[in-house]
Amino acid sequence: MNRIETQRRAALAAAALLLAAAAVACSDALSVERPGQITDGQVGGGGLTDALVAGAEGEFHVAFNWVANSGAAASDEAIFTHGWTPWEEYDRRTLTPASPAWDGIGYPWMQRARVTGVRNAQKLVEGKASGVAVAHALNYAGFSTLLLADYLCEVPLNGGPKLPRAQVYDSAIALFNQALPLAGADAEMTNLANLGIARAYLNKNDLAHAIEYAKKVPAGFEAWVRFQDSNNFDDWVQKYNLFYRTSGFISPSEFSLALDPAEWATKRDLRVPFNTDVQQRMFTSNPYPRLGYIPFVPSSFKGWPVQDTITGGADIRFASGLEARYIIAEASLYGGTGGWSGAQVLAFINERRAVGGFGPYAGADLKGELREQRKMDLFFAGYRVPDLIRYKQFHGIDEWPKGKMGGYPADAPYTYGSTECWPVAQSEINTNPNF
């Protein structure tokens, strides 16, 4: 078993320990338990090096698990219901700073992931750990920072003032740039850093730099958030893929996540399979019934193309050479220098359409078709919300769900709200004197 795989498996255990510690002291979501007890000798010894690296990756794992699922509900990837209405505020697009599921669960996990990655990287440097180990922690600190920039309207870092998203992307780029020279010959850490930089530049609309760094990522590169199959509901954060619990209707009186019949009744794409035989009745406290299709394993998950519901152990591809190619294609279409020609973008689109089971594209809207192919290829992997934000902010294209909420009968009175980016949590507002 190689070093990276060992650290990945250790990440699950480390995440569980960190979550347990956080439960004891949940009032301080940004704390790392007793970092002063970590000594240089312990880090240099190797065992704690692996633990610090695993902690950085494990906290990203926890935040990503939440964000991918909640982001699916908040965008047009899925419709979502739950017996406790605060969970539904993502789906309704009515998220506020004080929303309990956001203020008490999602926001602390996202902030803690970044802080843990940065602090663990610092401890590794102080303990004279290997450059690859430091790069590993820095990369996951960078991707945790990307989560904050991708989803929040503005972001306070380290108890500081609220920062615009562009500045937080710069913070992520700085972390990846620190990781690059330390990664040395480690291809995985180098590719992660370059991909992270390319994503940050794309979401800042710095198209030339997005193309420059995306071109450094091999087409076959893939990085995964790893999960373990488990039937224990208490393990949903640190062990199993949350889509297993939500989209599989495992708990009939709790989570329900499904595909909107308004979009999927006649739509078929091999990359996003689902149970086409029946529209499942979703659990909701609303008096009107809500129906949706049960999704199967999408192509961004391990196990595809199996035609079955998502399992707890289905890993999610969170970064890849495929994403890098989408970055090059999109940035090229919008005028980024050094990218692809229109013919090259069309060839890429046709390649991806073939994976979905379709023939060559015969239309004239390459940008629109690229958006559709990107959605299908990166389905349920945490991309859709930042994509919708970017399309609207920089290109004037609004694809947010709006009007009548999907899955309900025509006479149901429920309509989508206007939340796009997510707010800073109320607990941060109340306790951060610099906010």
SSE layout and pairing:
Blueprint: H1 3-24, H2 40-44, H3 47-74, E1 79-81, H4 89-92, H5 100-126, H6 131-151, E2 154-156, E3 162-164, H7 165-183, H8 187-204, H9 207-214, E4 222-225, H10 242-247, E5 256-258, H11 261-264, E6 280-281, E7 291-292, E8 316-320, H12 321-333, H13 342-356, H14 366-377, H15 384-395, H16 426-431
Antiparallel strand pairs: 1-5, 2-3, 4-8, 6-7
Helix pairs in contact: 1-3, 3-5, 3-6, 5-6, 6-7, 6-8, 7-8, 8-9, 8-12, 9-12, 12-13, 12-14, 13-14
Radius of gyration: 21 Å
Query: What percent of the residues sit in helical stretches (DSSP H or I)?
Result: 40-55%
How many angstroms separate the termini?
Answer: 46 Å
Low-pLDDT runs: 1-44
Secondary structure: number of strands: 8
Please tell me what the overall shape is: globular
Structural category is mainly alpha
Lateral strand order in the biggest sheet: 1-5
From N to C, what is the helix and strand string? Answer: HHHEHHHEEHHHEHEHEEEHHHHH
Mean pLDDT: 90
Largest sheet, described in full? Answer: 2 strands, antiparallel
Sheet-strand content, in percent, reads 5-15%
Counting DSSP H or I runs of 4 or more residues, the number of helices is 16
